[in-house]
UniProtKB/TrEMBL annotation:
Database matches in HAMAP family: Ectoine_synth
Protein name in the entry: L-ectoine synthase
Gene field: ectC
Enzyme Commission code(s) on record: 4.2.1.108
NCBIfam families assigned: PRK13290.1
Keyword list, A-Z: Lyase
Record CDD domains: cupin_EctC
């Protein structure tokens, strides 16, 4: 059984901060589950261009409001608490936090190690 609190990972190597986001990486590949679980904050007024070419990502919005835009189709979807969106076809997308910091619970398959850095195109490299 794995029991871990958000408080136990704050300000550790599993708490990654960027200009537009914070990723609190609660479960990672080392936990051996085949997926990773992240509690992510997207800062109000920011946008991120992302393209997870090597991962499926499921996202559940629990705070704040914003939108996600599919870059290829140009479709824009509103994001509010209780909304889930899944990048099941590796869609390149733009994530915008518009009203308040957007807090999103994210699940990645395959699991992230926690050491990844976004490539220039917004993706994470394939697992080695």
């Amino acid at each position: 059984m794995i029991v871990r609190s958000l408080a136990s990972i704050l300000d550790t190597a599993a708490h990654v901060k960027g200009d537009s986001f914070e990723s609190r990486r609660i479960l990672l590949a080392a936990d051996g589950l085949g997926y990773s679980l992240h509690d992510t904050i997207c800062k109000e007024g920011t946008q991120q261009v992302l393209h997870y070419k090597n991962h499926i990502e499921t996202n559940y919005v629990i705070e704040g409001e914003g939108e996600v835009q599919n870059v290829v189709t140009n479709e824009v979807f509103s994001l509010t608490p209780g909304t889930v969106y899944v990048l099941d076809r590796h869609e390149e997308h733009i994530l915008r936090a518009q009203r308040g910091n957007m807090r999103i619970i994210c699940v990645f398959t395959p699991a992230l190690t926690g050491e990844e850095k976004h490539d220039a195109d917004g993706s994470y490299p394939a697992a080695g």
